[in-house]
Every structure is written in structure tokens, then in C-alpha cells.
Amino acid sequence: MWNLLRRKSDDVRFVGICGMGGIGKTTLAEVVSNRIRNQFQAHSFIGFVREESTGYHGLVSLQKQLLSQILKEEKLNIQDVHGGMNMIKNILFSRKVLIVLDNVDKEQQLEALAGNHDWFGPGNRINVTTFKKPYPKENYVDLCKEIVKYANGLPLALKVLDKFLLIVCVGSSFSMHDLLHGMGKEIVQRESPEEPS
After folding, report:
1. Does residue 197 sit within a domain?
2. Is the domain of 112 the same as that of 182?
3. 141 to each of 11, 23, 178, how far by Cα in Å?
4. Does residue 177 share a domain with residue 122?
5. What are the φ and ψ backbone dihedral angles of 139, each rounded to 5 degrees?
6. What does the pLDDT look like over 105-155, one tens digit per residue?
7. Is 101 exposed, middle or buried (0-12, 13-18, 19+ CB in 10 A)?
């Protein structure tokens, strides 16, 4: 995940962390954000997007929060969601920013806060945590095969990995979080010492 978010290249990157509640998606996003935010002109961490987006002014309030953190200004005049989208696009395109949107569960939330690639200038990073699985089943089958391979087919290793499964999504490609690679190999070595690692 570090390699996906670090600003070594000037492309715009949306990185998703998907998985069930309680497995550490938010914690991972916070740790990564804290480690790399000094590489950007500005950063914003918007927590509880799902909860905060409900109600009449929910998305507008989140748009104001995002821009307030980026611009370091408290008083922003955003009348409606579309006005906020235009303001975000116009402001963020000219800045190098890191944005974390935590607990996104609806496409409208993502559209209102991060739109699409053309909102952002070169080198920007947008990290989204969600419990939804936005990927097609075909890619999921390949990922499942990769997980079984790491677990060497051992039921115990699969059971342990399942509890810690964290999937990193970039565009249309998906991979396991790097921490799982080592964990899977360690379990396999412990359970099957005669197997080569």
C-alpha cells in the first residue's frame, strides 16, 4: 500500500481498502496518511462518511470539512452538493493533496467528495475505506486463488487469514495487503515444516 500512495509518480491514484467492519481499515488509512502526508501540500482525513452524509446538509457539510482541512479556512460558502463539487474540483486540481475518505458506503458520497480523476492534478492520492466490495466476481476469483496459494491450501492458515483479510483495490486490480504475505508464509511454515517456503 505504501508503494501505491507514495508520491513517486505524478499520476492520480484512487486506492480503496475494502473489508468487513473491525479489521483495521481505518487504522491502516490513518497510519498511512500520517506517514506520507508531509509529501503533499495539503491533506484531509474525513472520517465517518457514511454516518455524516445523512440528512439534508450531510454531503455539503463533508465537502466543507474537506475544503476547510485543505485550505485551512473555516468559513466556506457552499450552497449545495453540486456547488461543492465544482469548488472541490477547481481548488484541488492546482494542489498536491492526500485525501482519505473513511467508511464510504454509497457512490454518491464518493462522487460528491472526490468525483473522478480529472478533479485532481498530478501526484494526488485519494484513499477510500469501505465495507462494500466494488469489484467484479471475476477478479475476486483470481484474488481467492492467490490467497489459497499463500496459505498453501491449509485450512488453518485460511481461517487465520480470513480474520485479517484486507484487500487493497487500485483501479480494477486487487491485491492482498502486504502484511498478509508474511503472515500466510509464517502459518504455512509452522503447520507444514516439511514443505518448502
Report:
1. no
2. no
3. 28, 21, 19
4. no
5. -65, -30
6. 888 999 999 988 889 888 888 888 886 554 444 555 666 676 677 666 666
7. buried
Looking at this protein, which amino acid is placed at residue 144? C
For residue 66, the SS3 value is: helix
Q: Which residues contact 100 (CB under 8 A, 6 or more apart)?
A: 29, 30, 33, 43, 44, 45, 46, 126, 127, 128, 129
Which residue segment(s) compose the domain that 98 sits in?
2-130
Closest CA to 136 of 171, 88, 183: 171
Helix (H, G, I), strand (E, B) or coil at 180: helix
pLDDT per residue over 58-111, tens digit each?
999 999 999 999 999 988 899 999 999 999 999 999 899 999 999 998 889 999
Which of 102, 130, 158 is where one domain is finished?
130
Comparing 176 with 156, which gets the higher pLDDT?
156
Q: 12-28 burial by CB neighbour count: b if 16+ within 10 A, else e?
A: bbbbbbbbeeebbbbeb
